[in-house]
Design a protein that fits this description.
Layout lengths: L1 E2 H11 L3 H8 L7 H18 L6 E7 L7 H15 L3 E7 L7 H7 L2 E6 L6 H7 L6 E4 L11 E5 L1 H14 L5 E4 L6 H16 L9 E2 L5 H12 L7 E4 L2 H13 L9 E3 L6 H4 L6 E3 L2 H16 L8 E4 L2 E3 L12
Parallel strand pairs: 2-3, 2-4, 4-5, 5-6, 6-12, 7-8, 7-9, 9-10
Antiparallel strand pairs: 1-3, 11-13
Helix pairs in contact: 1-2, 1-3, 2-3, 4-12, 7-8, 9-10
Length: about 325
């Protein structure tokens, strides 16, 4: 468990990206000796400062594959900003399901007064944490698999978002629409896939299981899966990724296949991470207010800590379709 401030302060002190700090903490091999030494020194300096503070702490638990400009990076920044504004220090724990950890005990030992949980509850560690009532928690992306009506839960409106992006590509004449799922451990992955199926059915388009590939939210996996889709005898004219990193992986595969994105194939994502606007062609996607979700999670947590009334313990925030250059008319509908 590390203070979020320690991660970013150490990155600044060592003059390296925050991902390098995380790599050193997790003892990854692909870190040079010079960077490892600088980061270790920077961590000691930052931790020494924070050890002398008496600010109450909130915890945040997210998967270890956090990147600064990806969904998780934006989410953590939203959590951190709201914690700071509310007068709390944030301790960030990077969760690895393959490493058995008593998360509840770890949070108590760190003297955390409450925590935001951004990983699936399917894992044994998280299930135990959910039933631990020693402190309040806010769960992100667990609307469909948390039975307690008093649990604090926040998620994006995944169903509305995918419905909009599917309507968009269908209106452009696409009938062969590939879909890259998210990690099946997450509620959002199931919701987005379900709406993909519903949208096809509503448009009278037969469901073809060959057009659906099981992703894990990562660029690398989506790249390989899109190559698989493009090698079908009757490949898709559009591909919808369950998140932007998947869509970006699909774009890379399409470019490598010599396809013009937005003309010969359309690609869309979900999240609207910063890269979605920068990549060429720019990515059509569903914007979810990721930073706001992090902030609202902390607001809910602080309100419960301070005994305030929470009108909506299960909060679903709106999404918005952002149409950019990566989607266009289906080649056979012009």
């Amino acid at each position: 468990m590390l203070p979020q401030s320690t991660l970013y302060e150490a990155a600044q002190i060592a003059n390296v990206p925050v991902e390098q700090v995380i790599a050193v903490i997790l003892d990854y091999d692909d870190v040079t000796a010079d960077v490892r030494a600088r980061v270790q020194t920077a961590l000691k300096l930052s931790q020494s400062f924070h050890a002398h503070t008496s600010i109450a702490r909130l915890g945040a638990i997210v998967p270890r594959n956090v990147s600064e400009d990806g969904y998780l990076g934006v989410l953590v920044r939203g959590i951190a900003a709201a914690a700071r504004e509310s007068g709390y220090e944030l301790l960030l724990h990077l969760y690895e399901p393959e490493r058995r950890t008593n998360i509840a005990a770890l949070l108590r030992e760190a003297e955390v007064v409450g925590a935001v949980i951004g990983v699936p509850l399917n894992d044994e560690d998280m299930t135990a944490l959910y039933f631990d009532k020693t402190m309040p928690y806010v769960f992100i992306d667990h609307m469909s698999n948390v039975p307690d009506p008093n649990a604090l839960i926040i998620e994006a409106d995944n169903r509305h978002g995918v419905a909009e992006v599917m309507q968009h590509v269908i209106e452009l004449g696409h009938r062969r629409i590939g879909f890259i799922t998210g990690d099946s451990a997450y509620a959002s992955a199931h919701q987005r896939f379900e709406v993909y199926q519903v949208a096809l059915d509503a448009a009278g388009i037969p469901y073809d299981e060959a057009l659906v590939v099981e992703g894990d939210w990562t660029h690398e996996t989506a790249h390989a899966l899109t190559q698989q889709l493009l090698n079908l005898d009757n490949p898709p004219t559009a591909v919808v990724g369950s998140n932007d990193l998947s869509a970006l992986g699909a774009m890379q595969a399409a470019k490598e296949a010599g396809l013009t994105i937005g003309d010969q194939i359309s690609i869309a994502g979900f999240d609207d991470i910063p890269m979605a606007q920068i990549v060429s062609p720019s990515l059509t996607t569903v914007r979810q207010p990721t930073h706001t979700i992090g902030s609202l999670a902390v607001e809910m947590l602080v309100k419960r800590l301070r005994g305030g009334y929470i009108e909506e313990p299960h909060l679903c925030v709106k999404t918005e379709l952002i149409i950019r250059e990566s989607t266009g008319w289906a080649p056979d509908s012009r």
